[in-house]
Amino acid sequence: MQYKVIIPAAGSGSRMGAGFNKLFLKIKNSPIIELTIKIFGEDQRCNEIILPIKEAEKHLFETLNLPNSIKQKITYVQGGSERQESVYNGLLSIKDAADYVLVHDGARPFVSKDVIERILERLNDHQAVICAVPMKDTIKKVIDDQVVETIDRSTLWGVQTPQAFTYECLVQAHQKAIQNGFLGTDDASLVEWNGQVVSVVNGDYNNIKVTTKEDLFFAETIYEQYRD
Ligand code: C5P
């Protein structure tokens, strides 16, 4: 199965507080985004890596230490003011409606081959597939420093990326969301909102999204354990 991956990379990473795009923070000498791109660049089934970016940062992406075989797969598109818009701009650049599309956050540099494998396998008979892990903590709804409700954890999952879709399924969901002003925090939420089934496979607790400063410590540990 051939697929394209959209890796939105146009964020500012305000929760990281680095003062620049957090995707260029280094984990053991490699920028986060370089690690993320390599995972898909090395997968023979991935025939295009679409990167929504800020134009002003293009030179930074172009100087990433990637082999030519991976650089040739990259298409840059204009990022949007929201992640959703960045992904949609990526979708608009796709010419072949027959393709499968994966969307993966640039800030998740540790997605394993096993997770990608599980997703692609499930995509054989589903239009939309996400990976997720069961919640470990007790989850409470809190308003104004006060617990409002303790939510039954047994059905709660923490959702990760990649999220995979047929091109038609994802583009339709995005277009309907734009028409109705619906903003989701991930792509699957647009597909759900469009009334379509989203299938779930097991993700991986190591597939973290590097979001805040503490995550950098975990990221270094995961890197040492799992990458060569
Ligand atoms: O900020 P957060 O980590 O949730 O963003 C998830 C991903 O979406 C990041 O890789 C970020 O670069 C990307 N993004 C984007 N365009 C935006 C906002 C975020 O491509 N306007």
Give the count of structural domains: 1
What is the overall shape? globular
> How do the strands line up in the largest sheet?
5-4-1-6-10-7-11
- CATH class identity: Alpha Beta
Report the CATH superfamily: Spore Coat Polysaccharide Biosynthesis Protein SpsA, Chain A
Q: What small-molecule ligands were found?
A: cytidine-5'-monophosphate
Q: What's the rounded overall pLDDT mean?
A: 95
Number of helices: 8
- The helix/strand order is EEEHEHHEHEHEEEEHHEH
Q: What low-confidence regions span 5 or more consecutive residues with pLDDT below 50?
A: none
Please report which band the strand proportion falls in: under 5%, 5-15%, 15-25%, 25-35%, 35-45% or over 45%.
25-35%
Largest sheet features: 7 strands, mixed
Structure commentary:
By secondary structure, the chain is of the alpha/beta class. The protein has one domain (3-226): Spore Coat Polysaccharide Biosynthesis Protein SpsA, Chain A, CATH 3.90.550. Helices cover 33% and strands 25% of the residues. The protein contains eight helices and eleven strands. The chain has helices at residues 32-41, 58-62, 68-71, 83-92, 113-123, 167-180, 187-193, 213-226, and strands at residues 3-6, 26-27, 30-31, 46-53, 74-78, 100-103, 128-134, 139-143, 146-151, 157-166, 199-202. The strands form three sheets. The chain has a seven-stranded mixed beta sheet, with helices on both faces. It has a two-stranded antiparallel ribbon with strand order 2-3. Strands 8-9 form a two-stranded antiparallel ribbon. Strand 8 and strand 9 form a beta hairpin. The protein is globular. The mean pLDDT is 95. The chain binds cytidine-5'-monophosphate. Belongs to the IspD/TarI cytidylyltransferase family. IspD subfamily.
